[in-house]
Amino acid sequence: MEKFETLISRCVPLPLTDVDTDQVIPARFLKATDRVGFGDNLFRDWRYLEGDIPNPDFILNQPGITGQVLVAGKNFGCGSSREHAAWAIYDYGFKVVVSSFFADIFKNNALNNGLLPVQVNENFLQALFSKLEEDPSLQIKVSLEDEEISVPGTDMKEKFEINPYKKYCLQQGFDDIDFLLSKKSEIENFEEFRLVAAR
Amino acid sequence: MEPKTLFDKIWDSHVVHTIENGPQVLYIDRHFIHEVTSPQAFAGLRKRDIGVRRPGQTIATADHNVPTKDQHLPIKDALSKHQVDTLVKNCEEFGVELYGLGHPYQGIVHVIGPELGITQPGMTIVCGDSHTSTHGAFGTIAFGIGTSEVEQVLATQCVLQRKPNTMKIQVDGTLKNGVVSKDIILYIISQISTSGGTGYFVEFCGSAITSLSMEARMTICNMSIEMGARGGMIAPDETTFEYIRGRQFAPKGEEWDKKLAHWKTFKTDEGAVFDKEIYFKAGDIEPMITYGTNPSMGIGITGSIPVANGQADVTLEKALEYMDLQGGSQLLGQKIDYVFIGSCTNSRIEDLRMVAELVKGKKKASHVNAMIVPGSKQVEKQAIEEGLDRVLAEAGFELRQPGCSACLGMNEDKVPRGKYCISTSNRNFEGRQGPGARTMLASPLTAAAAAINGHITDVREMLN
Questions:
Q1: Within this chain, do residues B294 and B277 fall inside the same structural domain, yes or no?
Q2: Same domain for B128 and B184?
Q3: Is the dihedral of CA B410, A104, B114, B62 positive or negative?
Q4: SS3 for B115?
Q5: Which residues of A are less than 8 Å from B27 in CB distance?
Q6: Residue A108 burial by CB count (10 A; 0-12/13-18/19+): exposed, middle or buried?
Q7: pTM of the model
C-alpha cells in the first residue's frame, strides 16, 4: 500500500447523496481476477451514454475538471461490499474522498487501499460544494498528520477523525494483513483455548 | 454480572486482541467465498507465499457470475468462465471445499450456508458479500467484507474490525393478510433510510419477528445492509433449533445435545442497554413496493410517490427521472415488463411455494417475462419434488437454475433499458439489473400478483 501524508489538489464535486457502489462500478465490470484497470469503468453508467459515448453532463467528462479529491454527498459508498469500488476510485487517480458520511464497508475498503475517506460535517461539505461551483479550480489541502482539511488562502478548515491505528497504517503504507500475521501466536492461543473449553 | 446484549456476548467471546484506540482482532468461525470477490485475495496469499490458515472453516460456491441455463455446458462468456475456473483452481490449490457448478450443494452462498446446517447460533461468519447479514437470522454475527479482508481471513482466520454500536429494532403485533417478512424489512428501511443503521449492528425482536419461520427471518436479516447496518441478527429459539436439526452439517447425537444446551444461552439479557432502540407496529405495515433507486424509497402498495422538493431533493428528483415516474402519483396499475423471483433475499422453498400457491391455475399476463431462479440446487430439487415446477410452468413462469442471476445482472440475466421489473431481490439501484433497467422491489406475493395482472397490483385483492 502507498503511504499517505499530505495532499494539495483540485477537487471533483459529485453533489449527490447515497451514491452506491453499483454506480461506482457496475457488477458487469467485476469479472476481472486482478486489481488493475477498474478506473476505466469508474461511474461507468453515469460517465457514458448508450453506445459508449461520453456523457457531456457528467462531471468527469467536463473540460477543466480534474483533481485527486472526490467530493461527494452524504452516505457515499452504500450498498454492495465490492472492494472494486475503492480500487476503481484509486485507479482513476483519486487519493481522497470527502463526504459528510460514509457507508461502513466502503470506508474499510478505502482505508485498506490507501484511499483516505475524509468525513466532514454537512455544513462544511455544502460550503465546499458552493466554493467549487464558484471556482472549479479551487485547491484544497488534506493533512493526515494534522487530521485537517482546509482551503489554502481562506479561513475554511475542518478537523476530521481517523482511528490512530489506521492513521499509522496509512502513514507507513502498512496493511492489516501484516499486522494480523504478527499476531499468530495470540491466534493460536485463542484456538487452543476454545478447543479446551469445548471439551 | 452486567446484563449484555446477544451481540456483545458473541462479539466479546471472539476477540483475540484489542489495539488500543483501534480495531479488534475478531476470530471468524465460518468464511464463505465465491468467484467474484475472492480471486484477488488468493493472489495476495500467493504473493506473500502463505496458505489458508484453516481451510476447513472456509466454504466456496459459484453463484454471482454463473449462467442460470445449461449449467452442464461450458460457460460461454470468456471472462466469466475464467473467473469461475479461477475459483476451482484456487480451491484445489489451497484445500478449500467447493460446491461449484454441477455439485448438488451449489447455490447462492447465503442460501446454502443455512440449508446445509453450516450456519449455527453464536458463530462469527463473514463473506465478501454485503448480504452475509442473512446468516444473522440464526443468532450469529455475520457481515460482509471487502476482498482485502477476505485475504485477512484466509491468511489468519481473523479480521480487523472496529466494534459497531448496537441497535434494537422491535416489531410487535400481527401482520395483516398479504403482508410478509419482505414487507416488514422494506417498511423498516423506508422509515429509517439507507443510512439509518450505519455504524450499528441490529438485533431484530418482538412478536412479529419471533413468529416468523427461519426463511422469513433470513429475508429480514438479509436486507439489514440496505439501511446501512453492519449486520442484523435474531436470537435463536425453538424455530431456529428445529430448522437446524438433522441438516447435513448440523451436530448429531451427543454433540447435538451439548450444542443445543449452549445455543439456548444465546439471548440478550434482561436490562441490557442498546445504543439505540426503534419500535414498530406490525399492524401499520402494508404490502410494500419501491418507486426509486435505493431500497429506502418504498411505499405501501396503495400509497403515493413522494414529491421532490426542489434543491433539497436532488437525489429523489434524479431517481424519479431515472424511473420515469411522477411524484404524487400511485404505483397501482403501473404496467410492468419483467418479474424476477430470486436472490439471496427471496429464493428459498417457502418463497417458491408462496408464488406457486398464488399463481396456481392462473396465467401470467402475455407481455410479462417472468423468471424464477431458485437459490440452490437443493431448493430446485425440492421444488421439483413438490411439483411446483409444473404449477409455475403452467402459469407461464420460467424456472431457471440456481445463482444470483438478475439480482445484479453479472451474467446474461438482465432487464433491458427502460423496462420495469418487479423484483424480489434487495437492490433497486440504477442499472443494478442491467444498464437502464427500472427495478421495483417487492415481496414474492406482490411480484407474483403483478406477473398475473401485468401491472402493479394489491395482492390482497387476489387472496382469500
A1: no
A2: no
A3: positive
A4: helix
A5: 187, 190-191
A6: buried
A7: 0.97
The answer to whether B376 and B100 have CB atoms below 8 angstroms apart is no
Same domain as B292, residue B278: no
- For the stretch B44-55, pLDDT in tens is 999 999 999 999
Question: In this predicted model, what pLDDT tens digit does every residue of B2-36 receive, in sequence order?
Answer: 999 999 999 999 999 999 988 999 999 999 999 99
The per-residue pLDDT for range B396-448, each reduced to its tens digit, is: 999 999 999 999 999 999 999 999 999 999 999 999 999 999 999 999 999 99
- Number of structural domains in chain B: 3
Q: Answer yes or no: do B277 and B153 share one domain.
A: no
How many interchain CB pairs under 8 A, A with B? 179
Shortest Cα distance, chain B CAs vs residue A23, angstroms: 7
Residues B219, B221: Cα–Cα separation, whole Å: 6
- Specify the CATH number for the domain of residue B342: 3.30.499.10
Per-residue cell: B207? 412478536
Interface subset of A 48-107, CB within 8 angstroms of B: 50, 73-75, 78-84, 86, 101, 103-105
> Is the pLDDT confidence value at B210 over 70?
yes
Q: How confident is the model at residue A199 (pLDDT cuts 50, 70, 90)?
A: confident
| Neighbouring C-beta atoms of residue A31, cutoff 10 Å | 21
Q: In terms of Cα–Cα distance, which of B297, B374, B450, B330 is closest to B71? A: B374
Is there a contact between B129 and A81 if contact means CB atoms under 8 Å apart? Answer: yes
Q: Kindly state whether A147 is in contact with chain B, defined as any CB-CB distance less than 8 angstroms.
A: no
Residues in a beta bridge with B26: B15, B159
Partner-chain residue, chosen from A31, A103, A166, that has the shortest CB–CB distance to B83: A31
B459 belongs to a structural domain: yes
Q: Mark whether B20 and B143 lie in a shared domain.
A: yes
Residues of B in contact with A119 (CB under 8 A): none
SS3 for B244?
A: helix
Please state the separation of Cα B53 from the chain's center in Å: 28
The pLDDT value given to residue B314: 86
Q: Give the CATH number, domain containing residue B271.
A: 3.40.1060.10
Q: What's the gap in Å between the CA of B453 and the closest CA on chain A?
A: 31
Q: Does residue B334 sit in the same domain as residue B458?
A: yes
Residue B253 falls within a domain, yes or no? no
Name the residue range of residue B435's domain: 288-463
- Looking at the structure, do residues B129 and B226 belong to the same domain, yes or no? no
